[in-house]
Amino acid sequence: LMKITVLTENNARIDNYLLSEPGLSLLIEAKDKKILFDTGYSDVFIKNAETLGLDLGDITDIVISHGHNDHTRGLTYFELHGVPLIAHPNIFDTKIDENKIHYGCPIAEEELGRRYRLNLTNRPFWLNNEFVFLGEIPENKSADIDDTALVHKTNEGIFIITGCSHSGIINIINYAKQVCRDERILGVLGGFHFLKKSEEELEEICSLMLKSGVNPEYPLYPCHCCDLKSKIIMSKFFNVQEVCTGDVLNC
Description:
β10, α4 and β11 form a beta-alpha-beta unit. It contains 6 helices and 14 strands. The termini are close together. The strands form 2 sheets. It has a 7-stranded mixed β-sheet. A 7-stranded mixed β-sheet has the order 7-8-9-10-11-12-13, with helices on one face. By secondary structure, it is α/β, with parallel strands linked by helices. α5 packs across α6. It is globular and about 45 Å long.
């Protein structure tokens, strides 16, 4: 059984008094692993962990999905010497939008290397016999070559955890099945980057997800960079669940 605590996400629930921001950070626990998956845009993930009574001092691994600042800027507020940080080597690439705003990783490789034990790889890397960092995703046609995902492999199948899926959610799903040698998908959680897509595009992607083996009966957890329209359309195909800051998911 895997336990996922949402340390920060775009949305928060009323009356839980936690902070949210346009970013993503998850605490993933299973057996001997306590993994920090992304760190959001600020120190909100740390403040929320304190509010929830969670200790981030015994994190076993940090996994970075890609180098955008809404997933990496929290690293500037955090350090755990000797703890492995796994990411694609290109997370440090310069990223500038049309308004000349820098949105890439705000912390340099040298500084990150002083705070953690860097493991930069574009190949699949197994954290243990259950968790695998996928590395570079084949067929990625985006500019974000560093975009990847984490997979939890169990006896029942695989559960996929994404950051933004710039590399394509179908590509991620197919590569996860290939790396894990398992066609059984127990669920997908994370950002699918479905913003600004038409209804026809979204329906086509959902159909491809079904063909890729995503079970319509199992919970699906789109969040972060999935807007309301995309969630409504996805709910026609899948058992879509809301994800908010502070939620605890047992997957």
